[in-house]
Request: fold
Amino acid sequence: MANTRTPYSTQPVDLAIAVGEASGDWIGALAIEHLIQTQTLTMEGIAGPKLRDLGVKPLHGSEELSVRGYVEVLRHLPRLLKMRKNLIQHWSVTNRPKVFVGVDAPDFNLNLELALRESGVPTVHVVCPSIWAWRMERIHKIKAACSHVLCIFPFEPELLAKEGISATYIGHPMAALVPETIDPTAYRTKLDLQSEGQLLAVLPGSRGAEVKHIGPAFVQACVELLKQKPDLRFVTPMPPASALLNMFRMMIPPQLLDRWTLIEGKSHECMAAADAVMLASGTATLEAMMYRKPMVIAYKMPWLSYQMMKGKGYQPFVGLPNILLNEFAVPELLQDDATPSALAQKALFQLDNDTNRTRLQSLFAEQHQRLLKPSGEIASRVIQQVMNG
Reply:
């Protein structure tokens, strides 16, 4: 008979948790922080530094789940499958918790939750997978795997309720970090940027593939813009301690380098300092919305990947601001439409049209308020309820 023992201890545990990436560790910590204010809990799981600081015993580090891209996932698949199998054995048989909390990382966590729930362990999934954007078929697995889902967008609980899935809107944790009034001049001073004139923040993505595909079009669009706005300046934040900053710098023509500031990290400050933003589709579009910025959203990917993806969308929008508003409030230029001239034309409008700016600031401020909830308190209350049955 195969040896099914795992290397984990069998000290009784109240709460098991699994998070991937720094954002999952942060969101998980918001909930756990409130949970342990009123009771003493033994906790273990896949944890990052914030959860470890709150007393979660790490069976694995959260960085072990931080795998992106098909090729990377395939390379790490045997290790990830073995880890999940060991955790299922541990939590469903050897050391059953009163509740399991999976934060994001749906490709890993949903299957883990499914096995644990089938064994009788209640499960809470934090951050609803974006089934409203693509892979709607996942909703059946969510229904089977999750006792309760905690959602960060206001339209998600209703969508899940139609399938009989218990869900609660907790607000978007990022909303609490964004001030309600933005002073661009103060942010420019903080970043040591010129205070006069217009500034365009250019964010070509946080991954190498994104920067490789959309970066050249963004740079050429800026070349076009300078023909019409010779005094325009640019700022681009890049993930700290990555090779992306140098990769992007190599794309910028020498004549633009004196008016283009590249900064490690500080993406929020760069957006806050700018008059408008040109950026790759993703979470950054939501952040730009919270900072009330007119924007142009764009995306490019390899041709074959795009052909595979384009039939799987369920909405006419890809940008989170447009999805939340249910309208094309800001332009989206995807794949072949993301030409330098089209990007420049749209960016010019976002920079100069005051009526558009005023309208967007009003719409975005309203959405910011909708996203602003005491996320940690709501999440901890629901986890407590599920844990107590």
Remarks:
- The CA atoms of residues 192 and 261 lie 10 Å apart.
- The chain has 16 helices and 13 strands.
- The two ends are 36 Å apart (CA to CA).
